[in-house]
Request: fold
Amino acid sequence: MSTQRLPLVDVDDLPADLREMVDRWREQEDGDPNFIRTLANAPEMLRRFVPFYSPLVLKGVVEHRTKELVRISIAWHNQCRYCIATKYGSGRRAGIDDALVQEIARYETGPFTERERAALRFADAIVVDPGDVPADVVDRLRRSFDEREILELTWVICLWIETGRLFAALEVPYGADAPSGPVEVPA
Amino acid sequence: MSLAATGPDREILETLDHAPHRLERFLAFFEHAAVEPFDDSRLRDAVAARVARLAALEHAGALVGDDLPAPPAGLEADALALVRFADAFALDYQAIPDDVYAELDRHFDAPALTELLWTFAILRGIARARNVLS
Reply:
């Protein structure tokens, strides 16, 4: 029995602009539509969120590969099954294959650049205690990133931690064939 | 509407201004999301205040066990349902009791609940960023 807490909107029932959003997400990023199908319960909010979120993740001042490594690491911290299953096409094109994903937990010794290691260490620290990021973690970060890049990293890390936890709590399913409509909730 | 009424202060939000159009795009989303589902300031203020209170406790290392402060007195049932969700989420987002969701479902339909919960998560993200950047 499903325990997902919000219904998924059927793709065929989406307004035309949101169906196009699903198509672009699939074509460009090989993305699973259930992120959109969940937030499409509130279509106007989704329309306003994507123009902020998509450039933050895919473009921005920090290269996508580093941010995608951080996103995957946070997904594991959060134990968000949807976030773990999600793999951006942009990430794969930047060399993040399944073998590399398996190395993220051992990033200090795995095949990563110092810049990527510093970002992953910073994310770990924010997950554990956002109010007490150790000075050596910040110093290390500053050796690889400028101020604008640190601000962007901070924001994506903080937003991914909390939105990922919400998706975990809501048990958003992964897979285009996840059923739409009313949700069964355990008694 | 005033952003101050929703909790996050402009000083933290302005750190989003590190890339072109980022702050304005965030505000275009957030000022909608923080208003539309919260059809009056009563709900919005209850959620924002609770998120800020929990973040402050977390920042102080005082968010432990089940020992959370009691919800503010005088909350109506719908606001109380949101506060109870916020508390359960803060304690263990992977083990939110069914009755907490059932209470939310009693007061909000799927569109409202989607906006409320997504806005709640964003508010928590802002609070977390504030703890890091401060």
